[in-house]
Amino acid sequence: MKQRILVTGGTGYIGSHTVVELQNSGYEVVIVDNLSNSRADVVDHIEQISGIRPAFEKVDCLDFEGMDAVFAKYPGIKGIIHFAASKAVGESVQKPLMYYRNNLVSLINLLELMPKHGVEGIIFSSSCTVYGQPDHLPVTEAAPIKKAESPYGNTKQINEEIIRDTVASGSPIHAILLRYFNPIGAHPTALIGELPNGVPQNLIPYLTQTAMGIREKLSVFGDDYNTPDGSCIRDYIYVVDLAKAHVIAMDRILNGKQKDKVEVFNIGTGRGLSVLELINAFEAATGVKLNYQIVGRRAGDIEQVWADPSYANNELGWKADTSIEETLRSAWKWQLHLREEGIM
Predict the structure, then answer these.
(1) What is the dihedral of CA 107, 109, 112, 118, to 10 degrees?
(2) What is the pLDDT at residue 199?
(3) Could you say which DSSP state residue 243 is in?
(4) Do the strands 28-32 and 55-57 form a parallel or antiparallel pair, or are they unpaired?
(5) How far is CA 197 from CA 51, 206, 268, 282, in A?
(6) CA distances from 200 to 103, 273, 297, 307 (A)
(7) Which of 218, 248, 312, 319 yields a CA-CA distance of 20 to 30 A from 238?
């Protein structure tokens, strides 16, 4: 009997790649997504890749009764991987209430429903934004949580606290908080990838759309940071490597391997790359020249952060081992696929 897993936001960027890896590992997957930042045909593409069609329900995680009905329709869900959230730093500064409602209430609903339906564990999609600008780099899981630089980052901090408080209250829930660094790239088949609605808020889709000529110019936000070339530094991780970490984490919960009822892992490469280095790497990997310009800093951005992933490497037996060149080529291959399909 395959264990049944609920993936919220499962037609989204990271969610869809994780569904593929879960199915490849023998899990049965139920996707819940409101399609606010994704497309229903992602389910078709997941089926093309894995040969298995996941169950799909168009439900908003803010809808308590709707989510209750999903658990009733698919009994025996053992674990949840919770991706569904608003996720753009800049937008969160402009629309804080939308971010607090979407990101907090969706989690609260799940935590209330889990004991009712016998769901054992949850993996929460957290972020390195919880560290703010760290005092020491690379950043470990023991680094202090700093005041968030954006409402988006604050929702991740608050959600981590909500999970800890819920477990501490005696709720029969196990949790793993995965603090991602910067996921990029696309599946090697180019059948799924990052496709935000409207103007991309994240660097790589904007970059590939600029390379394709869809966007006129890529803006680099700031060249006056205290970094070697003045642009921000991030830890860019291949989305498929990230997806595999979720499968390992779910196995850990369901097989009783956790050392604590709430565990935290940094999911990154351990290598920091500046925005300008990333642009140069893209041009070298693809042979495509980018039209970009340096503009002023963007509200909510921190200067530099990259992971010390050694705890995840040693404890989970997981490692991000895909090169940045291969990762960027996969992102470009995805953009070419979108052009071939007449999507973008």
Answers:
(1) -90
(2) 86
(3) H
(4) parallel
(5) 27, 12, 26, 23
(6) 20, 20, 17, 25
(7) 218
Please report the pLDDT score of residue 2 as a whole number.
Answer: 81
Structure-block tokens of residue 3: 């264990």
270: closest CA among 231, 328, 314, 219?
314
Chain centre distance of CA 337: 22
The backbone torsions φ and ψ at residue 174, rounded to the nearest 5 degrees and listed phi first, read -110, 145
Among residues 13, 27, 152, 206, the one annotated as catalytic is 152
pLDDT in tens, 195-224: 978 888 889 999 999 999 999 999 999 999
What spatial distance separates the first Cα and last Cα of the chain, rounded to whole Å? Answer: 41
Longest Cα–Cα distance in the chain = 56
Token pair 């759309």 in the structure block, residue: 209
Low-confidence stretches of the chain (pLDDT beneath 50)? none
Examine the residue annotation and report whether 206 is marked as an active-site residue of this protein. Answer: no
List beta partners, residue 55.
Answer: 30
Q: What is the pLDDT of residue 1?
A: 59
Could you tell me if residue 246 is left (phi over 0), alpha (psi between -120 and 50 degrees) or otherwise beta?
alpha
Instruction: Read off the tokens for 93.
Output: 């500064």
For residues 135-150, b (16+ Cβ closer than 10 Å) or e, as one string?
A: eebbbebebeebebbb
What confidence score (pLDDT) does residue 196 get?
Answer: 79
- Dist. CA 36–CA 60, nearest whole Å: 9
Structure tokens at 182: 């910067």
According to the model, what pLDDT value does residue 132 have? 86
Q: What is the pLDDT of residues 140-181, one digit of tens each?
A: 999 999 988 889 999 999 999 999 999 999 999 999 999 999
Closest CA to 86 of 105, 67, 71, 64: 105
pTM: 0.96
Residue 197: predicted pLDDT: 80
- Average pLDDT across the chain, whole number: 96
* Amino acid symbol at 296: G
